[in-house]
Amino acid sequence: MYLTLEEGIYLVRLARYSIQSYLSDNEFPKVKPAYEKLLKPSGAFVTLKRYADNSLRGCIGYPEPILPLYQAVIRAAVAAAFEDPRFPPLSPEELPEVLVEVSVLTPPERIDTKVSDRKKLPDIVKIGEHGLIIRKGPYSGLLLPQVAVEYSWDSTEFLNQTCLKAGLWYNCWLELDTEIYTFSAEIFTEKSPGGEIVREEMG
C-alpha cells in the first residue's frame, strides 16, 4: 500500500486527534476517512516521542492487517498514549510536547524458511527497509525498521535485539523453532508537535 504524502499527513493528524479526543471524552473518535485507500485493512503502529530529546514515549500497533487502516491508526494512537505498559498514561499537559509518528506496515513475510543455514538469515534482512518480528512459542517481539537505523545496528544485531524484545535471548533466531518475519513500513512523522508532517526516508 503506497500512500501519498497527503494520505500520510491525514493519518498523523488523525492519530493526534484520536489522542486529544480520548483525553477529552474517553472515547475513540467517530470519523469517516478522507481517502478511500484508508478503508483497506493494513497493519499500523503509532510512535510517540518526546520533542525535547526525541526519546520514546509510547509505541503500540497492529502487525497484521486486521483492521481498516484508519481504524488501526485510531486505536494504535490511543493505546500508545494510554496503554503502553512501559510508561504512565499520557497527560493533557504532555500532549503538546510529543511528536506523533505513524508507520503503515506491509503484511509480514516469513523468512526463516528461505534458507537451510540459519546463519545466512542476516543476509536477507535489509537495514533501513525491513522491520522484524520474532515468534517462539508464546513469545513474540517486533521492532520497526527505523529502530535499527536509529541505533546503527547491523542485521545480526537487529535480529538479536528483536529476540530480546520478545523476552527471549540473544541468538534465539538461530534455533529452528523460532519463526522470523520481515515487513516494510511507510513512515510519516511530525517535525514539531502538531507541526509539519513529512515522509521519513531511511535509505
Shape: globular
CATH class of the largest domain: Alpha Beta
Question: Can you tell me the CATH superfamily of the largest domain?
Answer: Hypothetical protein ph0010, domain 1
Whole-number total of structural domains: 2
Structural category is alpha+beta
**Poorly predicted tracts of residues:** none
Rg, Cα atoms, Å: 17 Å
What is the percent of helical residues?
25-40%
Q: CA-to-CA gap between the ends?
A: 18 Å
Number of strands: 9
What CATH calls the topology of the largest domain is Glycoprotein, Type 4 Pilin
Order of helices and strands: HEEHEEEEHHEEE
Q: In which order are the strands of the major sheet placed?
A: 2-1-3-8-9
Biggest sheet descriptor: 5 strands, antiparallel
CATH architecture of the largest domain: 2-Layer Sandwich
% residues in beta strands: 15-25%
Mean pLDDT across residues: 96
* Separate helix tally: 4
